[in-house]
Amino acid sequence: MKQVYKRIGVALAGIAFLLGCKGDGTLLDLYPIDPIVNPDVGILIQENRFMNVRLDGRQRISGITEKGVFSTNDRFQSFDFESHPWQGVQGVVAFGDDLIVHAPNDGLSFSLRYSTDNGLTWATYDKPVLDEADLAAGSVSVVQLLVSANRLVWLLCQQHNGADRRMLLYRVDLEAESSQKLFSKAHAIGVDASFSGGESGWLLYAEQDEPEGRIHVLKTTDGGHSWSEGAMLDGVEHPAIEPLDARTLLVYDTAGNVFYSADGGVSFAPVAIVGGRISRCRAVSANIVYALLASGVAKSIDGGRTWVILDAEAHGIKISGSAMHFYNERQGIVYGDDKLFLTDDGGAHWDILVYPYDYVIR
């Protein structure tokens, strides 16, 4: 049942508890006396966690938690919450605009299903995704799902046949109920894929017999129908791609390496982010890029060529999280399992909208 939670004041007992703390490092030293978070938000995140959150407007935030879906039109002064357990636990999940796609393992292959109502109900793609030759050649698992416009879904897959590996790329049109294999490469291990618009896209892959840490770049300019070899990068660990436009992209990894390309991935130059290692990157425009670091937030205003570490904190708490979403170049959110921060001015200042304060989560 849908419930609407209204703003209430913090209990006087909670304030008295804060005021009663004595000695160095009291709660008053750590947290402001005035509550930063609506206490009712405790209902949202108590024994719960955020799965996917979007800043849909200047005031509106919506998302999915492990236990239900929520929306707020006034930054959690009040919010709607509909209880419903998250069902995408096993397998690979991708979130798009008004579309969630889930590929759980199913024997030697996988199944594909999707939701258009934030995971409340699911429809199964009933037609075969893989062609008969790939089904017969060995087990296939999904490495990554990408959701694009017009309900198109890209599936970067890995095929296993004994010790042999093959990278596969399929595209599923949910509207037309059709599937097409766009690329296949023997002895290749798919790592990451991304697209800019409907035509330009990139694949990162490793050759099965090459040294660990060597990554190859493939590029398409016709929506995945044909691919050309790009650069080769050495010494990278678990890399990811973030395209800014059809020719500009960043590749970053868990070891702290960042590479910039202005020619569509034909060549790359290393980029330094002093004191930071990117865990997540978000290009808001061709010039403005934000990056979540192991601790803090970085920003580029020249398309990823140079970066500055933002003084990103609110009420003495460092901004941190596992994901982010931006409504425009200046307004965005950073969130983790049980916390959510918001900026209205491009990261210069931040507000705490959800945080597991002791006097909120009971």
Could you walk me through the main structural features you see in this protein, from its secondary elements to its overall organization?
With 362 residues, the chain is mainly beta. The protein has a single domain, classed as Methylamine Dehydrogenase, Chain H (7 Propeller). 7% of the residues lie in helices and 45% in strands. The chain has 4 helices and 33 strands. It has helices spanning 12-20, 27-30, 41-45, 132-137, and strands at residues 2-5, 50-55, 61-65, 68-72, 79-83, 92-96, 99-103, 105-106, 109-110, 113-115, 123-124, 139-148, 152-161, 164-173, 178-186, 188-196, 200-207, 215-220, 228-233, 240-243, 249-252, 258-261, 269-270, 278-283, 289-293, 297-300, 308-309, 313-314, 317-318, 323-326, 332-335, 340-343, 351-354. It has a 5-stranded antiparallel beta sheet, with no helix packed on it. The longest helix is centred in the first third of the chain and has 9 residues, at 12-20. This is BNR repeat-like domain-containing protein. InterPro entries: WD40/YVTN_repeat-like_dom_sf.
CATH superfamily annotation:
Prolyl oligopeptidase, N-terminal domain
Distance between the termini: 23 Å
User: Which residue ranges are poorly predicted, with pLDDT under 50 across at least 5 consecutive positions?
Assistant: 1-33
Structural class: mainly beta
In the CATH hierarchy, what is the architecture at level 2? Answer: 7 Propeller
Tell me the name of the CATH class: Mainly Beta
Overall pLDDT level = 87
> What portion of residues is helical?
under 10%
What does the overall shape look like? globular
Strand order of the largest sheet: 1-5-4-3-2
Largest sheet: 5 strands, antiparallel
Please tally the β strands and state the result.
33
InterPro entries: WD40/YVTN_repeat-like_dom_sf
Protein name: BNR repeat-like domain-containing protein
